[in-house]
## 1
Amino acid sequence: MTAYDPSADGAQMSFAKDMSYIDYLALDPILGAQHRQSDAHDEMLFIIQHQTSELWMRLALHEITVARDLLGEGTFPPVFKMLTRVARIFEQLNSAWDVLRTMTPSEYTAFRDELGKSSGFQSHQYRLIEFIMGNRNAAMMKIHEHRPELHHMLAQEMERKSLYHVALDQLAAHLNLSFAPDLYRLDQPHAADEGIMVAWAKVYENPEQHWTLYELAEKLVDIEDYFRRWRFNHVTTVERIIGFKRGTGGTSGVKYLRRMLEVELFPELWHLRGQL
């Protein structure tokens, strides 16, 4: 049997003068960015899992940043597509924990000391995702002071309305309502408000009349649903591998992560369900 020659079907085989797949994706620096600090076999898994997670977060930020801008303009259809994509990105991030959980406590211990004080707690992209979606805490910015450009980026985000704030603007405009300015605090997490919950309840009680808002609400719930699963699987993965040891970055580890599970990004959209 003669070996298949792709060039016979017109496939280009020489890229001495043209951009190749490797060039377009800048694979040389990406695939050369795994620098183990030990000889431990499983450190490669640890590095790649976190690097790929940061790449998915990079895409999530790209999507929710544009989605917020378009939502502010009242351009709903592309927003729905982008928010759906963000939810699926969080699902992808969630699945990554399944791979990391194949590493045992003994295997992690073999290189854990080499991490020094570095920790996922220090991910500026994760922090920015939280800030954009509304979970804001100025104290979390201090960890980025050694990188002025990252600190400035987070500070700028703290001066903007969150994704949920912009959604509330649309809710108010479509229902001919207004919400008190103090509900739009930019420097702290959004606190559940009875008036906002009543407004969303009107949407859910008559979805046919308010279909666009109804779909927006469900897209937001989808995002938070997948985001919660991601955080929950983070907790269980950490507990499975290191138990209740302190995190490498100095946090209380599992105890800190469990506290984060109590955070509600869009509280009224969850609370109203018990009243419908």
Note: The mean pLDDT is 91.
## 2
Amino acid sequence: MPTPRSHAARLFGERVRAVRLALGMSQEEIADLAEMHVTNYGRVERGEANSELHTIVRLATALDTDPAELLVGLYGEGMLPDRDRAFSVADFIAARKAQE
């Protein structure tokens, strides 16, 4: 079984699934409402998909929830796979000031 793409993708998928279950809807029903294939929808819930913005908005609309509710807190260290350069703008500004 594939592993989640990232901690953020796993948490996003868990939130999508929790909302769907609270509504008493099936994956097939939500996938249909979101105009996506149920296989792709399942990948979202398992955290295997790297959803684009329009997909996130379509899912939130189908789930009758604000996209922000599905995304809140999905930033910071440990959310994304390791990168060569995992710097934020705050790191950049601090480094630039250190050079002055």
Note: Helices lie at 7-23, 27-33, 38-45, 53-62, 67-71, 89-99.
## 3
Amino acid sequence: MSTSWRHRAVTRPKALDGALLVLLFAATVTGVLVTRAPASGPLTLWPGLALSALSCAALNRRRSHPLTVLAVTALCTIAVGALGYLLTPLLMGPLLVAQYETSLRTPRRTGWNSALIVTGCVVVSGLLFPSFLHSVIFTVVNPTAWILLCAALGGYRRVRREYAVARAEHADRQREEEARHRVVQERMRIARELHDVVAHHLTLADAQAGAVKHLLRTRPDQAQEIIDRLPETTAAALRELKATVGLLRHEGDPADDLAPAPGLDRLPDLVDSFAAAGLRVGVTVDGERRPLTPVLDLTAYRILQEALTNATKHGAGRTAEVRLAFAPRRLTLTVTNDTAADRTPVPSGPGSGFGLISMRERATSAGGTFHAGHRPRGGFQVVCALPLDLPPDRRDESAAP
């Protein structure tokens, strides 16, 4: 079908339907004339033409009332056969179209039951009112084959249509589930960011306030220095909170003032912030340092930040060791510190402690491994191995701006 005909079929469906019915009526009239010519006896022409016109006119309602239209066309066809006309495919055209539409638009059982009933009626009428040639093939086999063939074609088209609808519904459900999954993953990611930011900066502020209270009488100069650094801690917390909450903005909201995601390049600033809280952090880098993807860089930074935050809250000593080991295919992060005897130790199980859960989820989402627990000789250690090649499902995220 050309483009112009397709456009007409879409824009003028009633005109196209009327044209098809006119062509069907012409084919039915041709069947009447072809059957009348070789008949052994005289056949009246006008009843055949009138019944053919009635059958084609009834097809206008074949979509809304398929069973009624099938009954009307079947009665007209039986009447034409009773007049002595041979039931050829041309003469049976309206009945065949009605049977096709019935099998297409009704349930499977209804379609086949109607086809069997119509076939039985046509065959019985052919045996009671035999047309010329008195042939069983023309009287029984020919109508039966054509009616059942149209019923099978209509049923096949109905099954194809139902299958297409089922596939579309399944695709819609799958898209909705995928969208919900992405929303859940995004919420979890934002929750991890908020937890890390709030826990880190509030712990630093609390540690700095405690140090000021301890040093205010004995070392006022050092206490004043810590107080001077408190605004830096709170300002950094506000910046990171603003950047994280900015992820919840709509696409049309301005986000030019959002700070970029932190990475290992800010590790010296992170170490200095903990030093202001009284935790001395030593950093060791093994291997040749390599540039990381934005997602991997943020993951490594957040894990180190959370591990040092836990060391500030639970550490017995005031020192911690950070080791970055760059291998050809992975980056290993190790944070070691002493555990306080008078405080609740940080549990190493997978289901306890939001800090450990956050670090474990970050490492797993990047395709790495995570372990946290007490060392045999005392202290607490966090070890995380991150692959330098992201898993396929995270590469698009790392490439996003």
Note: Confidence is low (pLDDT under 50) at residues 252-258, 340-352, 394-401.
## 4
Amino acid sequence: MTATNVSAAGKCANGVVRTHRPKGEAKREAILDAAERIFAERGYHGTSLRDVAQDARAGIGLLNYYFPTKAELFRQVVLRRRDVLQERVAASLRAVGPGGNPHEAGAGVIRAFLAAFLEICVGADEGLRNYVRLTSRFMTAYNEPELHDPLTSLHPITELFVDKLRSVYPHMNERRFHAALYAMEASLIFMVQDPGFLDELSGGHHRAAAIDRIVDDLVPFFAGGLHAIAGH
């Protein structure tokens, strides 16, 4: 460890060097955490920079130093956890077996995609839960100029699902394929942005077993519909 690194670290009582985030970085993260929560709850236009600063216990001047505009704050919020979410979805899809036939294979892909998001919604990582709620909520405001570019950066996550499912049905009519995708993604967006709805579906229990039962019910519905229109 260099002298510079040591000077930026703290020491335990036994003299062992313990690294920690610089104060400025920690405050910036606190602002992003607050913005994530408030954007998820109130939407873009219902969120003010002053509200975010107050929630983060930061002065408005400090917030403006890190994020000069609300659009820039939103962009940074979207980018911060994007790669983490993408890897969670990718890992879930990688675990899907080959399946015995297109119907079984398609069901496996749909299960993996749904489960990746619903498990986050009942998981212990509050930040990732808020992030999924936020990004799902804003998909309905996709074409707003201030939101378009950040939300476009999420496309690779959806493309993981599209590519995996397309490999199961390579010859399916393009229009029918995308109509089925739209129905599945719209349903998922609604479920994860409304924690009250998810609570009701799971009987008020935030447990993996409850989510498994929800997925068990949804997968045959979506997979059956997809397979049915694939044959036309």
Note: The chain is about 70% helix and 5% strand.
